[in-house]
Design a protein that fits this description.
Distance between the termini: 54 Å
Mean pLDDT: 88
Number of helices: 6
Shape: globular
Strand order of the largest sheet: 3-4-5-6
Helix content: 25-40%
Largest sheet: 4 strands, antiparallel
Radius of gyration: 18 Å
Bound molecules: zinc ion
Number of domains: 2
Strand content: 15-25%
Structural class: alpha+beta
Low-confidence stretches: none
Length: about 140
């Protein structure tokens, strides 16, 4: 029997977007779309881990999808910045649009429509609180 350090011998790869996202979120990595259109990755938990070239290479195949999701959704009001942890929500959920709506919990000025496939929910992108009762997603049912 041989003992081998798998993490050192096989390069980091993700089979699909979901796998890349769960690895990022579990590991405490955050993403942000800079105004110049570049997707920035950094580590946000204590015991800061460097974002190595290996990590960047493994994420490159999903660059377009990251960029699409990190962009402000359709309907996002002008003059309101994305909340600091936008990546957590935007990468983990399918967000279809946004609208001006003040959150009763934290006062954030925008609500986003999250598509859970069988239903939709307007939620606050900052604290996650539901903005109004969920709506059945008729198109996904049919
Ligand atoms: Zn809120």
């Amino acid at each position: 029997m041989r003992i081998s350090a798998r993490t050192e011998t096989s390069p980091l790869t993700f089979k699909d977007f979901q796998e890349a996202v769960s690895w990022l979120l579990r590991g405490g990595y955050r993403l942000r779309l800079r105004p110049d259109g570049v997707v920035e990755v950094w580590h946000s938990l204590p015991g800061e881990r460097p974002v190595t070239q290996e990590v960047l290479d493994a994420l490159t195949p999903f660059y377009r999808e990251f960029k699409r999701r990190l962009t402000k959704p359709r309907g996002w009001p002008k003059g309101v910045e994305l909340p600091p942890w936008w990546a957590d929500m935007a990468l983990g959920f399918k967000i279809t649009r946004a609208r001006a709506s003040e959150c009763p919990g934290c006062g954030f000025l925008v609500a986003v429509l999250v598509d859970f496939h069988f239903w939709n929910e307007w939620r606050c992108p900052q604290c996650g609180r539901m903005a109004e009762p969920s709506v059945a997603n008729v198109t996904a049912r049919g």
